[in-house]
Amino acid sequence: MENTPRAGVPRPVLVVDFGAQYAQLIARRVRELQLYSEIVPHSTPVSELLARDPAAIILSGGPASVYAADAPGVDPALFGTDVPVFGICYGFQAMARALGGTVAQTGRREFGGTPLLVDTPGAVLADLPAEQSVWMSHNDAVTVAPDGFAVTARSAGAPVAAFEDTARRLAGVQFHPEVAHTPRGQDVLRRFLFDVAGLTPNWTTGSVIDDQVAAIRAQVGDAAVLCALSGGVDSAVAAALVHKAVGDQLTCVFVDHGLLRAGEAEQVERDYVAATGIKLKVVDAAETFLSQLAGVTEPEQKRKIIGREFIRTFEAAAREVAAAEGVQFLVQGTLYPDVVESGGGTGTANIKSHHNVGGLPDDLAFTLVEPLRTLFKDEVRAIGAELGLPTEMVQRHPFPGPGLAIRIIGAVTPERLTMLRAADLVAREELTAAGLDGEIWQFPVVLLADVRSVGVQGDGRTYGHPVVLRPVVSEDAMTADWAKLPYDVLARISTRITNEVPEVNRVTLDITSKPPGTIEWE
Ligand code: GLN
C-alpha cells in the first residue's frame, strides 16, 4: 500500500470498498465534482487511511450483513479523527453500527427504484423534493440512528434511510446516490462534499496536466524515456504528457504492423507528430507481419503471432534507441481501472516493465512512467483534447492490438485488408456524420472472407463476400449489448459499402449481446 500522500495529485476523497458493485462509479462521481478520488480496500487500517491525508472518506456498499460474524467492520476510531465520512448502503449500516445505532432486518427488502420520503431535509438532502425515487438494493436497514444524528428520510423498508451529524461532518444514506437511477444522487454527494465536508473543487483537466508534468519531471530528471505508440488514445496521451514534461528526452516508437484501419498510421506519423512535436521512430513492419500471418485462420494463433512479432520488432527498435540515448524509462498508458482491478492500488507499480509490454528480455529492463495511473478513460480523453491531440485519435473507439487481422474471418491477405479498410471507413464516416460516435462503445466491421453469396448488380450476377456490422454499447466492455442504430444510418452504410467496395455484395448486422457473443469476432 502506498500509504503516504502521493506526488502529482490533490488530497483524495477515499472510497473504502466493501465489495461494492459500484465503488469505481462512486470515485467517478466524486471526480465529476472536481475532487480527486481513489478507491482503497476495506482492510486498510485507519492509520493508513489517515496517512493518505484524505479530504473525506466515503464508505461503499457491499454484499455482507453488518451483524454477521465475519462481516467487514468499520473501526470506530475513524469517526473520532475529524475527517468527514459519508456512508452508502453497507457503509451507512456499518457506520450506524460502529456508532451505537441498530441495524436489523425489517422484513421488507428493497431492490430497484424505491420512493424516498424526505421528512426534514437537513444539509445533505437540502432542496430535494419531499418524495422521489432512489435506487435501493438492501436486505438490512438501520432501525435506530446513533446518538447525535438527525434522521432526514425514510422509505417503506428503511425507517432510517438517511442521517447526518453536521457538527461532526458525518452522514450517510441507505440508497445509492452514485447510480443514474437515482436522479438527484449527484446533488446528494455534492451537498455532502461541499456543504457538510467543506471541500473546494481542485481537480480539473488543467490541474491534472500541471500536477502530472511536475511529477514526471521529478521522476525522470534528465534521463531518456521511451514510449511505444499504438495509435490508441492511452499511449498517445501518456506520451504527450511526458513530452510536455521532458521534451526531447522522449523518443516514441510506432510499429506499423500493417493491420490498422484507413488513415490511422498517418494519424500517428503526421497529425500527432505535428500536434505534439514528438520525436518519432516509425518501424514499417507490415511485410513481416503479413508473411508470418500467411495462411493462418485460427484466431488464437493469429493473436500469438502478432504479439510475438510486435515484441520482436519493438525490442529491436528499443535497442537502437537505447544504444543511442541510454534509455532508463518506459512510458506505459496504464489506466486507473487496471490499477484497481489488479489490487486496489497495491504494488502494481513494482511489476517489471517487460511484463507490461509482454515479454521484453531482462537486459532491457526499464523503470515505468505511468502518468495515467490515476485516471479514468473519459479523463484521459479530456486531457488529450486539452493537449491539442487530433480529435479522431482522442475520441477513437477501442481498437484491439491485433487490429484488422481479427476482423478478417479467414486468412489475412493484402487484398482482404484493402477490402475491409474500405468497408470500415464507410461505417466510421457514416457513424460520425450521424453524430453517434459518443453513443457507441465499439464498432467492429468484420469481413467474412471465406464466405461468398450470390448477388445481382447492374443486371449481372455477383458472387461476393459479406461484411458484418457489429456496433455495440457498453459501460466497460465486460458486458455489451448490440446498438440499436437508426435504420437510416444502417441503410446508408449498407448502400455505400456495396457500391464502393466491389468485392462486397452483402451487409449484415450482428444482433448478439455479450455474453454470449464477444464484441470482436475472433
Ligand atoms: N448487504 C447489505 C444489505 O443487504 C448492504 C447492501 C448494499 O450495500 N448494497 O442490506
From TrEMBL:
Superkingdom per UniProt: Bacteria
Physiological role? Catalyzes the synthesis of GMP from XMP.
What Enzyme Commission number(s) does the record list for this chain? 6.3.5.2
Indicate what this protein is called per its UniProt record. GMP synthase [glutamine-hydrolyzing]
Domain called GMPS ATP-PPase: residue spans: 203-396
Reaction(s) catalysed by this chain, per the record, are: XMP + L-glutamine + ATP + H2O = GMP + L-glutamate + AMP + diphosphate + 2 H(+)
Has UniProt tagged this entry with the keyword Ligase?
A: yes
Tell me which residues this entry annotates as catalytic: C89, H176, E178
* Annotated positions binding ATP: S230, G231, G232, V233, D234, S235, A236
> Among its keywords, does the record have Ligase?
yes
Describe, as the record does, how this protein assembles with itself and its partners. Homodimer.
Q: Which GO terms describe its molecular function?
A: ATP binding; GMP synthase activity
Instruction: Please tell me which top-level EC class this enzyme sits in.
Output: ligase
Q: Which residues form a coiled coil?
A: none
Q: Which InterPro entries match?
A: Class_I_gatase-like (IPR029062), GATASE (IPR017926), GMP_synth_C (IPR001674), GMP_synth_GATase (IPR004739), GMP_synthase (IPR022955), GMPS_ATP_PPase_dom (IPR025777), Rossmann-like_a/b/a_fold (IPR014729)
CC per GO annotation: cytosol
The pathway where this protein functions is: Purine metabolism; GMP biosynthesis; GMP from XMP (L-Gln route): step 1/1
For this UniProt record, the keywords arranged alphabetically read as follows: ATP-binding, Glutamine amidotransferase, GMP biosynthesis, Ligase, Nucleotide-binding, Purine biosynthesis
